[in-house]
Write a structure and sequence with these properties.
16% of the residues lie in helices and 35% in strands. Strands 1-6-8-7-3-4-2-5 form an eight-stranded antiparallel β-sheet, with helices on one face. With 158 residues, it is an alpha+beta fold.
């Protein structure tokens, strides 16, 4: 996907209650594949159906963020709170405004899009980052290595 193909739009979302696993990590550590593997196994074990979310909770509205900055990474499902595995934790995404766009491509190619959004697009827009979770909505069959994979990306703004 070319950066010029991205069409960010401002939308408002309501509160979301999500359930799953979390770790403290950094971009340099990149423990996402292990986190997703364990989470998906638990979802399959409990036959959970719902929408999958990849969520990042960054410190200090990302000020001073670099590849070694530690943040919370979550793998979550939007599902009925009953019948969930005991090791699932709840994360509430508060209502608010988000910049939303669809990213199509391999997950490993996303950093160039993020550099554009956080380095150019948002600073030159009337919006500023808000201190709420950033998240992506993923299809049940999402494959991060597929060049046709799609993610619905949500970046919190005020």
């Amino acid at each position: 996907m070319k950066i010029s193909d991205i069409e960010p739009k401002l939308i408002e979302i309501g509160e979301k209650k999500l359930y799953g696993h979390t770790i403290q990590t950094s971009l340099a550590e990149d423990q996402m594949s292990q986190l997703w593997r364990g989470f998906r196994l638990r979802c399959a074990e409990f036959e959970l159906e719902g929408t999958f979310y990849s969520v990042a909770v960054y410190p200090n509205t990302m000020r001073g963020f670099n590849p070694t900055t530690t943040f919370e990474r979550w793998t979550l499902i939007e599902a009925d709170a009953e019948n969930l595995p005991d090791d699932f934790q709840q994360l509430i995404i508060p209502e608010g405004n988000y910049i939303h766009f669809t990213y199509k491509g391999k997950a490993m190619d996303y950093p160039s899009v993020a550099r554009y959004l956080f380095g150019e697009w948002i600073p030159n827009s009337p919006h500023e980052l808000d201190d709420r979770p950033h998240f992506e909505v993923l299809a049940k069959n999402y494959n991060p290595f597929d060049e046709n994979a799609q993610e619905e990306v949500y970046i919190p703004v005020k």
